[in-house]
Amino acid sequence: MEKEPRAPELGSYIAMGLVIGMLLGVIFNKVQYGPALGLLGGVIAHNIAMANYRKKTGGMG
After folding, report:
1. Which residues of the chain form beta strands (DSSP E)?
2. What is the model's pTM?
3. All structural domains of the chain with their residue ranges
């Protein structure tokens, strides 16, 4: 029996985006832009993941 895939969770993508954003902010010496870019990246990644999930399951998610 095949398991139905779980919907992507927004919190995971936000947290991952914040970590990556802060890391890039430190690397490029622009720490003040890190959280904003991280949140934006996390939301964009979540939207892409949700689109793939909807395509795979055929539902509204």
Report:
1. none
2. 0.77
3. 10-53
